[in-house]
Design brief:
412 residues, alpha/beta, five-stranded mixed sheet, globular
Length: 412
């Protein structure tokens, strides 16, 4: 098994986001995860996420939308107005993006003579009334009252529905600058959300490649599985998170399946399955930063394009142990890809992953690893181009050879 997470630190639009000040339209946002929030200033931002829609029959359904143009920006204060040594700011008062000018929005609405608020709802159909002629009770204000109407209009347009059909939405901000290859020799990857979409991608492609041959699953007695979770950046304690019962439930159901031509499965099949299983927790790792080399343990400084990094911590912040290292080394040997080792300094804090919590929940052997990157949790991160290929080949080899390798390990 390989487990990874798909979420990254981001700014999310608040349930009531409509703001304006000093002639600017602004949008209220809240922080998700532990981002390097200063990197979100002066970037060309837009929004993407889920819109809840009510159709004319009264049914509710979701639509995924992405506004594919810059509409938001968080402006810094000119250095001439505040010559502070460090860039420090209050996340509640200084992190609200601007979305345009009130005057421009009034002109768009044909209210150029009006100097008041730009936040008025578009014309709607007259709501139905009850027998006494009163307006139906509304527990919450309409979406176009809680948010700037033009934002709701843009979301409705992308969802291909009427504005009045938008009931609610969950939107996060994202940087519209595309990912790109960089470096003098095009050896670097500049991109948002490498942590942890890179490992999600590599595990997916590794699984696909491992079954690309028609004979891939001949004589195979294991199940090849990846599980991509949400909400790792905020603790994983959600229905979609790694600290839920999602993965244990899936494994239990798979282990209880009756194989054609055989008797019913053993009642202890789930426990037996876990005892023979191995989980790779795939989450990006830290590359050495040449400007801060003193922050790294001298003998454990991962480098970009030198291979996937095995993460080790004596205090079990990572789930790696020696048998796991040997097993993954054998898989890497067969794939002909390099590996690296990482531990944090004794005087430094250590992050964690979904590895320890899944290891505790499943009782399965687990190892933590990930590709090295710079600027983790920044709006723009940096990775190595060749490490992507190394990880794909490593995961493919792990899936292809695990059933053979597992039989060779005898650990009491």
């Amino acid at each position: 098994m390989i487990g990874a997470h798909t979420d990254s630190p981001a700014l999310r639009i608040k349930p009531v986001s409509k703001k304006q000040g000093e002639g600017f339209i602004q949008v209220g946002v809240e922080t998700y995860g532990g981002g390097l929030w200063h990197t979100w200033f002066d970037r060309d931002l837009s929004i993407a996420g889920r819109v809840m829609v009510r159709d004319r029959n009264g049914s509710f359904f979701q639509k995924l939308v992405k506004i594919d143009r810059p509409i938001l920006r968080i402006p810094t204060l000119a250095i001439h107005l505040d010559r502070q040594e460090k860039f420090e700011f209050n996340k509640e008062t200084r992190l609200f993006p601007i979305a345009g000018l009130v005057a421009a929005e009034l002109n768009r609405q044909g209210k150029g003579h009006n100097t008041g608020s730009a936040a008025s709802c578009p014309a709607r159909e007259t709501p139905s009334t009850d027998d006494e002629g009163s307006t139906p009770f509304a527990p919450l204000k309409e979406a176009c009252e809680r948010h700037h109407p033009y934002i709701v209009e843009l979301l409705a347009k992308e969802a291909k529905v009427e504005t009045s059909e938008v009931v609610d939405f969950e939107m996060i901000l994202y940087d519209t600058q595309k990912s790109c290859i960089g470096g003098l020799n095009e050896e670097l990857l500049f991109s948002p959300r490498l942590d942890n979409l890179e490992m999600s991608y590599c595990s997916t492609i590794g699984l696909i490649n491992s079954v690309s041959s028609p004979s891939s699953l001949e004589d195979e007695d294991t199940i090849r599985l990846i599980s991509l979770f949400d909400h790792e950046e905020v603790g994983s304690q959600t229905a979609q998170g790694a600290d839920s019962n999602f993965l244990p439930t899936i494994i239990r159901r798979l282990s209880s399946l009756s194989i054609q031509g055989q008797h019913a499965p053993d009642p202890d099949a789930y426990e037996q399955t876990l005892s023979k299983s191995f989980l790779i927790s795939a989450d990006m790792a830290h590359s050495v930063n040449p400007n801060y080399s003193e922050k790294y343990e001298p003998d454990h400084k991962p480098e970009m394009n030198k291979g996937t990094v095995i993460k080790i911590n004596a205090n079990a912040r990572y789930a790696t142990n020696s048998p796991g290292i040997v097993l993954i080394e054998e898989a890497a040997r067969r794939a002909q890809v390099p590996l690296q080792l990482f531990v944090v300094r004794n005087d430094s804090t250590c992050g964690s992953t979904i590895g320890p919590m899944l290891s505790a929940a499943l009782g399965a052997r687990t190892l933590d690893l990930g590709n090295p990157q710079l600027s983790m949790h920044s709006i723009r991160e940096t990775g190595g181009v060749y490490d992507v290929d190394y990880a794909v080949k490593l995961f493919e080899s792990f899936f292809a050879y695990y059933s053979e390798l597992e039989k060779k390990f005898v650990v009491d």
